[in-house]
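User: Thanks for the earlier help. One more: Cytochrome P450. Can you show the sequence and predicted structure together?

Assistant: Of course, both are below.
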Amino acid sequence: MPTFQLILDLCKLLLAAFTLRCVLVYSYRIFLHPLHSYPGPFIAKLTDWYGAYYAIQRRLHVVTYEDHRKYGRVLRQGPNKLVFNSVEALHDIYQNDLLSKASSYLVTQVSPSIFNLFNVIDKRLHRTKRRIIGQGLNERAMRQFEPVMNEQITIFLKQLISCCQEGEPADMSDRCSWLGLDISGELGFGRGFELQTDTKNRWMPKGISTSNYRISVYIQFPALKHIGWEKLFLPIVLPKVLRFHRMVNGMIKARLAEEKHARPDLFSSVSDFKDPETGEGLSRRELWSESTFLIPAGGDTTSTLMAASFFYLSRYPPVYRRLATEIRNTFSAGAEIKSGPKLASCTYLRAVLEEALRITPPSGTTLWRDVPEDANSASPLIIDGHVIPPGTRVGLNIYTLHHNEEYFPEPFKFKPERWLPKENGLSAEETKRMHDAFSPFSIGSRACAGKAMVYLEASLVVAKTVWYFDFECVDEGESPVFQTEDQFGSRHSGPKLKFWLRGDMWKEL
């Protein structure tokens, strides 16, 4: 009995100590913390669980938008986090060499010694990697890769022909995801995953989605990873992870068995390149890490853009008719639809894609940056007029900025003409502000390296689909807004479209 009483007393003492610590910590965060005067949800002032909770629900982008409407253009979203919603903040944060990518991105590392473009924190190392990887993703590399891309797009179009002949609607999120991942596989490893033509690997999109979801939650609350709770799920998750790594390793071995320049992929473009400033190249292990990162990064971005484009084209008939007229008057055959002056002249096509990127950014999350603890107090960091204390984590939510009425009037309405200066009804200054706020690929040195690939792939897919087919939506009763779930990338379904062949054009396929 005395022993039991001693244990009970010890537990009470520990509970009291814990309670006292919570009171002191939370009181400091509410009343004395350098960010205490910034508005925001009360719970967010106490704990990072606020962001993690809504990340778990895949709703953090929507909640951030709603919070900005309630609290203003800057809000406190964690004890040590500020989120902004202005053009000034966009450029002050992401074009500022003083800030570094948030340390929370390190939760995505597979190995402590291997970094890729997404999770590398060191600025010098990032610049080196960016220059090297850029050789495989720039416009010149995309021109060389375009024939391979077109092979996969042709498969996509043939699958739509089958839907026409069978009278079955097509779920464009699935179709675009399979296409995007097959193209990413071709670029990263010299071969696709055959997702469009075979069901054996169609577990991949769901597996990638789960991985992105996990990353999204951890970036909001890194401690969740470090406590090791996910080990409980290893019996469920580990077989899928091992399956993915076996598949990737098989693709790497097959590619290494070929001549280095046998295919116009990343391996061919980058393996011999040395950074002109440092003289460094990528090791084989680093190169395959970058290729593996390209699978979800490239596939997810392009599939979201294409699915959103088809969604809004099917729900805005005037937009659809105008785009169809432009494409069908510009080209005389589907084979002519390729990169070059004719495709570049399709200004309405580009406007449709940019409006889809605006209203449905492929990644609607907040991209966090850290203010160094040793930041020079003699020249304080200023973001949108606010002096930011050292050690603060700052960011801007892309989804929220893209729906800011100050820059995008009627933000939830799909209006491609807003990107056409002669038609948008805005002044030159307002048009410039709108373009300055448009950041689906982020800006600055950390902007997406695959921007050229995304635009080329989406332009070809949408233009060729409009050339060969007419289509309409079969799920009219759903929301007029393309619904996405935020998970460091996005998860979505639909639209379901019914296709018709345009005359005999399809026979050239």
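User: Great, one quick takeaway?

Assistant: The CA atoms of residues 47 and 65 lie 19 Å apart.
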